[in-house]
Every structure is written in structure tokens, then in C-alpha cells.
Sequence to fold (381 residues):
Amino acid sequence: MTMNTKIESLATEPMAVTRVVVKVGSSTITNSDGSTDREYIAGLASQLSDQRAQGRSVILVSSGAVAAGMARLGQTGRPKTIPQKQAAAAVGQGLLMQTYAEAFAVHGITVAQVLLTRDDLRDRTRYLNARNTFAALLKAGVVPIVNENDTVAVEEIKFGDNDTLAALVASLAEADALLLLSDVSGLYDRDPSQFADAQLIPVVAKIDKATEQRAGSARSNVGTGGMTTKIQAAKICAGTGVHMTIADGRRENVVADALSGACGTLFLPRPERMGQRKRWIAYGVVPKGSITVNDGAKQRLIDEGKSLLPAGVTHISGHFRVGELVRLLDSQGHAFAQGFVNYANDDLFKIMGRRTADIHQLLGAKPSDEVVHRDNLVLNL
Fold:
């Protein structure tokens, strides 16, 4: 068996899934006139009920609140300003949840609304609180229905799209699999809307530049995401041990088929699975700045598992305080790690390139030997 054959065979092997996150996009759950497709949601609830009957716990990440609000308000065209979007979301969120509650009630299942913003995952305490909430809901047999809190979200605290949100929720809840149900059947070797002979890629073992180029920048007319955001979600899943599949949400029995590898594109995770704290550092927190390091420092960080010392720093960008997250860049400007910094940017500027022994003389104190300690660092592998 060749390596390619071995990799492709993984697409047809059922995943060992005990917890699954399913994300459905706006374009999938809305009718052509922009209204919520209640029949589709009823069918989706039935599929997820079947998964629960097999002993799997389920979390649903659903777009569609803004679209539902627009339809109720008689608006056409997606809101162009944040206040307009927030108003539509405020109207639509309750309508959407009512539809889901009624659809799941047919199967004797209770649902719960969970609204999140970036700040809920950026702060460690709030991150753990969210994790505990999911655990409690699933233990009680409830299906959490998650969406970004569009009624309060502004650019600084937005996830940007529900593909990213779904990947972060899958990591937070320690799910085994994430299904992105969309208006596309998966990732193709080239744009199927332009090339009739485009071929679906069944399995992606590693996301490389060619994979990202295939994603393009297509966007849905209704939703905010495209294939590019799904690839970004796959990167998060790959680093957190989650299998991710992109599949056509309108395909009959799509949830069971995607979990069995019968449809869509499966993105394989890396063999090693990060601990929860490392996941939070890697994906939950937004970097405040960047630190460029020399080649020697990069080699010691990657190959020897060392901490970053002032001597290895060559350049600083951005304004950050002690304890905030920064990206680490190599001499070519490529981000290869991120971690929590022990010095504010002003103080780090004074000591960069210098020996640890010089810190006290330069600053009048030495809070730490390390700029970024290894325990607070995650490599972008």
C-alpha cells in the first residue's frame, strides 16, 4: 500500500467519535428569500437526535441569526454597519432558537443557547467557565446551540466567522470531530464553479500552501465565511487533535455519512494532542504584538525546548504589557510560535540583544530571566 493510498483509506474508516460539534452555515439553513428553513432544521434535529441515540454527545454551532432578523424586519442585503447587524441579530437570535427548540423537542431533547465573543475565550477564567458550562450541559443531556454574540460583538471581540468559532468550541469542549455543513461538498483540487472536471479531495493529511491556495476566497451570498475560513478552522483542529470534515449540508443523512467518511473532505489532526492550557495559548488568545528572534534563538526554542532570552531578540512590534500574548517571528518574518511575555514592549526594547545578567543594570530590576518562558510558549508546527 502506498502512502497516498493509506492516507485516502482513512477517509472511509469510521472515526471513534464520542463528542461531535456540528456547524451549519447561514446559506444552508435559509431559504432563497432569506427566511429560516424550518423543514431543514427539523431534519437536522432528527439527524443529531440519531447521533445522540448512538451514545454521542452533540454541540451545534449555528449561523443564521442575522439572516432571520433581516427576514423578520423585511430587510434585503446584508447589514453594512455593526449596529445594523446587531439589531438584526437581536431580533433573529430568539426566532432562531425558538425554531431549534421546537425541532429538538419532537425528539424529547432540550436545547440551550450559548452566545460567545472572543473575550470569553481570551480571558483564562472566562475560558474555563465556558468549558465548565459545556460540560454541565452535556452531562445533563442538553444540546448546546452556539453562536457568536452578534448583539454586543464589535470588531475587537469578534471571532469573524462561525467556522473559527466552531473550531474553537471543538477544542474547548474536547470534541473528537467537527463537521462544517456548508453549501459546498468539500475542498476541490480547483474551483468547481469554473472547472467542470474539478475533483473532490477526500482527505487532507497536512495543510500546506497548496491547500490554502485551493481554498481561494469565495464567499457565500448569505454567510460571512468561505473556504478560506474553513481552512483556518482546519488548522485549529489539526493542532488540537480534532478531525474536521467539510460536507454539503443539504446532502441527505449528511451527519452520519460525514462521520463515516462517505462524503466531504476530511482534515486529519496531528498525532500529538495539546493539553487544554496549550490550546488556550495557541488559539484562544489574540496576540498583542510580535517579537523577532535570531536564528540561534529559534533553533533553541524549537529543537531544544528552551525559553526565549533577551539575547535572542532582534526586533519588537506593537504595544504589549507584561503577561500579554505575542507572536514570535523568525528572521524571515514568519510566525513560528506564540506565548506570554514577561516584559512590556518598552522594557523589552531596552534589554533586547543583551545578556540576562545585564537586565538589572538596564532596568533597575530583573522580574524574570526569560522574555517568554517555555511553559508559556506554543510552537506553530
